[in-house]
Amino acid sequence: LSPRKDVGIGEIHLPDATALGAKNQIELAAQLRARCEAGLSRRYVGAKSVIAASRLEEELSAIRTLGYESYFLTVADITDMSRERGIRVAARGSGAGSLICHVLGISGVEPITHGLLMERFCSPLRGELPDIDIDVESARRLEIYGAIFEKYGERCATVSMVETYRSRHAIRDVGAALGISPMEIDLIAKSMPHIRSSNIPKALANLPELKGLNLDTPILKMAIELAGRLDSLPRHLSMHPCAIVLADQGLRNYAPQQINASGYSMVQFDKDDVEAIGLLKLDVLGVRMQSAISYTLSEIERIEGAPLDIDAIALDDKRTFDLIKSTRTLGIFQIESPGQRELVGKFAPSTFNDLIIDISLFRPGPVKSDMITPFLATRHGLRVRPRIHEDLEDILRETEGVVVFHEQVIRIISVMTGITLAEADEKRRQLGDIANQEMVCDWFYPAALARGYTHLVVSEVWEILCAFASFGFCKAHAAAFALPTYQSSWLKTHHTAAFLAGVLTHEPGMYPKRVILDEARQWGIKLAPIDVNLSDATYRVERTSESVRAPYLAPNVASSGEVLELPDARGFAIRMALSDIDGIDGKEVANIISGRPYLDLADFVYRSGASRPTTESLLAVGAFDDLHNLTTSKINRRDLLLHLQDLYRLAGSKSTTGQSQMTFELQPSLIEPSGLPDITASEQVRSEIDILGMDISSHLLEFYGDFLNKIGAVRSSDLIRHRSGTSVLVAGVKVALQTPPVRSGRRVMFLTIDDGFGCNDITFFEDMQADFATVLRNSWLFLIRGEIRRTGPRGISLLGTGAWELAISYEKWRNLAVYEPSGTHE
Predict the structure, then answer these.
(1) Beta strands of 478-531 (E only): which ranges?
(2) pLDDT tens per residue across span 436-494
(3) Which of 267, 291, 465, 710 could form a disulfide with 137 if both were Cys (CB 3.0 to 4.6 A apart)?
(4) pTM over 0.85
(5) Is the link from the previous residue into 555 a cis peptide, with omega within 30 of 0?
């Protein structure tokens, strides 16, 4: 076989002209130009349109040279198909640097204002196809797949990926091959962290939680040894989660195909192979935040009565940046993690470009090379900004003299050596390979010296290029991320309830729903319980006149910077969703909704089609309280539970969980008060956690309020009032515990807890883990001692020095008779 003729290696196979409504390449070029010029006239006016028109000509010339008209028109066609179906779509990656992508509607980022470069994305010097990735709503991603396959047919297929052996798969497969008991091998596999198979012996030796496994038998020792030898070997092919290839009608001649488990055609090549043979690979990524934004917009239109075009909002809203500066960014795209919340507190972004820089700094490369420290020190006046040469001032001004972006490296090389931006990008790519750095150095020095730069300047610039070129981040990629970051921040600022309802419905972030519910409380939003006549399958926003707690106000102290204007969402409620009931299925939810309105509990049992366990769960979380006016009547929820038992008894129910409807033999009696006491607040919360996984009526820490006040525990929202280095006690519910690899190689545990007033992020280093690691791993409610670390205007974290179970500490305190009980406690 000929690699070029038979496999296609070395050639480009783009969708043919007929797939895009053209007859030949000339018509494709005319079609691309016409669409670009139409888009440019809509987006640019005045003097800026002249600049844009000139750049468009340059980009079209490069595309014409490469013959990539089909590439851009195909991607634009797919984004158009998404929008026609009402599905949100956005570009990510270096493609956001292309003006063509912007005017075609592929990317929402305006590249000229933000100094983005087409050359970082695509140039005639690069011997490979450019790469455009698009983000779509995760809930509707398969609709896009269906539309693509419907239009392009045999010209498209999904991409495969080779699943290789890691610890758990290796142990399971070796165990099965050796005939080891499935229960025994399952216990071992589930105990393993998600690591490479070759690291299994090291994990068994070093991780305390694995030392209790009994692996001393010869067959288990053999299994562990064999599992380690399977490391990274292929196990099976699976469908790539987002990659699709598009080509001309000869696609089946270029790559073998099979039907995957999802029913789509799939090439048996992975993502690198398909690019090697010249196929257009398009990543269609399902992004939950896009679904959350879409849901938010639909709720705004439902409540306000008018649609909102989030893609048309200004990118300089002060209140939006005030929210970001406050670090109250839970639910917001890209900047909600503990590390990012601390970084935005240090950084205090005030412009869209600041957001781009923030996202670029919080990446493995910049973090590893410690770009953040000099940048922040210069920004806050703690370090004099280095000025290497006046020719580089415009390039480095936005990042305080620190090279952060690939685009800066490209421009520096171009300015100092006189080569084109496309040629400079090739040099940047070579710098990423240590083996090529000496070759680039041998070229850079004489080229820069020949243009009049001193040896001192050239040496200083070269050191910067070597140190940062391989660790920098693509500004276009960061800008593409910054757009949904800003949009989600804007929605949280101006439509807080609708946005949090979207976050709760689609769960785009890293936090459990109970934390997002607590976030809603802090902005003055009422949490409306599940109601059989009002709740839907998703979270809904309602207007309310009920008074709730005052919204969060950012404390202002001498070191916290400017006064911030934050959201006030009083007057709105979020109604809990039926789908959160443990054990309920989609059919039950649909039946309950279709049967509304219900007159009373008996009517619900008779007509809803809900199973008995579901009905009991609904009753336990208060879904019938308003239906029976429990706040004003003499009956309570225990009476309703007795009444429910009577209903099933009268109906002759056998308590089958699969029961869908009932036929009554006798009329139920009126509900009479039984004299039993109503459920307590703690019982109510316990039912909510057991059934919904969330504490809705009260935050868990409220039951420990007297104890925490007595010992002087500090609320998370008040930590900013204390000096850095102060030792404090804090309490909260576990949100997350992470032990990621860190630069020093030491094992560090990062704990995040929620106390009803925000989140606390605590770091426990190795010297503290011997005493507290077990508590950190196994507990849920914590009392923590830590040392405050403050950086920048509002950056706060804690260095952990102690950790105890809150419930045990509380009981010890009570038993010491320090506290006289005055109510009911858990």
Answers:
(1) 526-528
(2) 899 999 999 999 999 999 999 999 999 989 887 667 899 999 999 999 999 999 999 99
(3) 291
(4) yes
(5) no
CATH of the domain at 758: 2.40.50.140
Beta strands in 570-672 (DSSP E): 572-575
Structural domain boundaries enclosing 158: 3-162+238-288
User: 766 and 802: one domain?
Assistant: yes
Distance CA 261, CA 266 (A): 10
The amino acid at residue 738 is Q
Q: Which helix (H) or strand (E) covers residue 52, if one does?
A: helix 47-66
Instruction: Count structural domains, the chain.
Output: 3
Alpha carbon distance, N-terminus to C-terminus of the chain? 75
- C-alpha–C-alpha distance, residues 580 and 505, integer Å: 10
Give the span between the Cα atoms of 18 and 70, in whole angstroms. 10
In a domain, 383, yes or no: no
Where residue 205 sits, what CATH number does that domain have? 1.10.10
CA atoms 425, 426, 431, 437: torsion sign:
negative
Residues whose CB is less than 8 angstroms from the CB of residue 284 and which lie 6 or more positions away in sequence, other chains included: 78, 134, 136, 141, 144, 145, 148, 242, 243, 244
One-letter amino acid for residue 631 of the chain? T
Per-residue pLDDT of 630-643, as tens digits, reads: 999 999 999 999 99
> Does residue 321 sit in helix, strand or coil?
helix
DSSP 8-class letter at 247: -
Phi-psi region of 478 (alpha: psi -120 to 50; beta: other; left: phi over 0): alpha
Q: Which of 288, 309, 329 is the last residue of a domain?
A: 288
